[in-house]
Amino acid sequence: MNPNEAPIGVLDSGVGGISVLRELVRIMPRENFIYYGDSLHAPYGTKPHDEVHQYVLQIVDYLLSYPVKEIVIACNTATSVSVRTLRSQFPDLPLVGIEPAIKPAAIQRPGSRVLVMATPMTLAEEKFARNVSRFADQATFIPLPCPGLMELIEGGHLDDALVRDYLTKLLGPYLTEPVGAIVLGCTHYPFVRRLVADIAGAGVLIVDGSAGTAREARRRLAEAGLLYEGTRIGQVTFYNSTESEELLALSKRLLDMPY
């Protein structure tokens, strides 16, 4: 196979990375994608560092068996844990991770309070602390761990009373003072963006890292001369470690979900 025709591999701890996949498909509609969701071992954000890294390595090995021409780690926790090691291990492979959209929030809402919704592990990683410190003089960042939210979204609770009640109780205490922005620091969370925006109220900026990650993935492929330049319509193939037909159906539903 011509390397340019090879698919792009995308991995996540479950279905959340489909928020990144949607952006990838939007800006590279002729590329083929293989998406692997590790719902069997989800959530990553509450597991030990070394355990998460082993899961990521297993998925990378699986994707490379196709082979893929690029890997996108569409999971904030997995990026924090594994991206540096993987880049050392596979120096010739275009490899892109995702991180909470700290910079856009600081630039667009300077001087404000910014809530950063993320998994406990993402918030505990040194990478997160470094990102916040770079922009600490521009905004006040408030880490907001969200245990259980990923599991709700994995269960298909995207716009019902259960997830609305969860988000209302989570965000309510932080909204008693003005908030300029809310960063969705897990790739699952964009699927409840509308609920978050509704609860936060008018004027609160809601940001995530999906679009920036997709642009960086395209840039790296172009830099490596690996962009597909033919006329085909790209295809997406889904795999999930649970082999659950319900999760595969949810994956396709999320890919087609309106923004």
Summarize the structure in short:
The protein is of the alpha/beta class. It contains 11 helices and 9 strands.
Ranges with pLDDT <50 over ≥5 residues? none
Q: What's the Cα radius of gyration?
A: 18 Å
Strand content: 15-25%
Order of helices and strands: EHEHEHEHEHHEHHEHEHEH
Mean pLDDT over the full residue set: 95
* Total beta-strand segments: 9
Strand order of the largest sheet: 4-3-1-2-9
Distance N to C terminus: 34 Å
Q: What share of the residues lie within helices?
A: 40-55%
Decide which structural class fits the backbone. Answer: alpha/beta
Main sheet attributes: strand count, strand direction, barrel closure = 5 strands, parallel
Keywords:
single chain, five-stranded parallel β-sheet, 259 residues, four-stranded parallel β-sheet, alpha/beta
Describe the protein in words.
- This protein is of the alpha/beta class.
- Helix content is 43%, strand content 15%.
- It contains 11 helices and 9 strands.
- It has helices spanning 18-27, 49-64, 76-89, 102-108, 120-124, 126-134, 149-154, 161-171, 193-200, 210-223, 245-256; strands at residues 8-12, 33-37, 70-73, 95-96, 113-118, 140-145, 181-184, 205-207, 236-240.
- The strands form 2 sheets. Strands 4-3-1-2-9 form a 5-stranded parallel beta sheet, sandwiched between helices. Strands 6-5-7-8 form a 4-stranded parallel beta sheet, sandwiched between helices.
- Helix 3 links the parallel strand 3 (70-73) and strand 4.
- Helix 2 packs across helix 3 (76-89) and helix 8 (161-171) packs across helix 9.
- The two termini are 34 Å apart.
